[in-house]
Amino acid sequence: MKIALGSDHGGLRLKKEIIKHLEKKGIEFKDFGTYSEDSCDYPDFAEKVAVEVAAKNFEFGILVCGTGIGISIAANKVPGIRAALCSDTFSAHATREHNDANILALGERIVGPGLALDIVDAFLNAKFEGDRHTKRINKISEIEKKYKK
Ligand code: RB5
After folding, report:
1. Of the chain's two ends, which shows fewer C-beta atoms within 10 Å, N or C?
2. Per the confidence metrics, is the pTM higher than 0.90?
3. CA distances from 56 to 1, 66, 73, 87 (A)
4. Annotated catalytic sites, by residue?
5. Confidence (pLDDT) at 149
6. CB neighbours of 16 closer than 8 A, spacing ≥ 6?
7. Which atom of ligand 1 is nearest to the CA of 69?
8. Count of domains for the chain
9. Which atom of ligand 1 is nearest to the CA of 10?
10. How far apart are the CA of 88 and the centre of ligand 1, in A?
């Protein structure tokens, strides 16, 4: 499993905790920035990670900003991306099982590091259930196609 990571300055500290966690678990990853606490714009990092995940160069992405909201909204603009903002472990596994989410978004100002790492594990360990959910995922893709300029 290969994970693409990204954050803005508001998510940098939590991203560093996630990096340590993935290293401990031996999970391969690449950090697409930001790398410093200087103020930056979350859409830049959302796009870098989303493009890599959509191209299937990475199985999943994890994006962090202050709230997780801006970075998830931006990532979801890339066709093929289903980024889910999660603040609890139930949503984290349910979004893999039902929505086949390919990016997990987290808010550093919303969840503490302990819960955030449990959310990461819940997301990465869950499997898409297919079946009736496939039809719904396909409908999301149809909406994407319908409004594509
Ligand atoms: C940055 O100050 C903050 O706006 C950003 O990290 C995020 O919370 C936006 O949704």
Report:
1. C
2. yes
3. 11, 26, 20, 25
4. 65, 98
5. 81
6. none
7. 10
8. 1
9. 6
10. 19
Ligand 1 centre from 107 Cα, in Å? 9
Distance from Cα 6 to the centre of ligand 1, integer Å:
13
Q: For residue 142, with 0-12 CB atoms within 10 Å meaning exposed, 13-18 middle and 19 or more buried, which class applies?
A: exposed
For atom 5 of ligand 1, which residue has the closest CA?
A: 66
* Distance in angstroms (rounded) separating the CA atoms of residues 82 and 14: 21
pLDDT (0 to 100) of residue 52: 98
The range of the structural domain enclosing residue 130 comes to: 2-147
**Ligand 1 centroid, distance to 65 Cα (angstroms):** 6
CATH number, domain containing residue 64: 3.40.1400.10
Helix (H) or strand (E) holding 144, with range, is: helix 132-146
CA angle 54, 69, 119 (to 5 degrees): 75
Give the binding-site residues of ligand 1, using a 6 Å CB cut-off.
8, 10, 42, 65-67, 69-70
pLDDT (tens place) for every residue of the chain, 149 residues total: 999 999 999 999 999 999 999 999 999 999 999 999 999 999 999 999 999 999 999 999 999 999 999 999 999 999 999 999 999 999 999 999 999 999 999 999 999 999 999 999 999 999 999 999 999 999 999 999 999 88
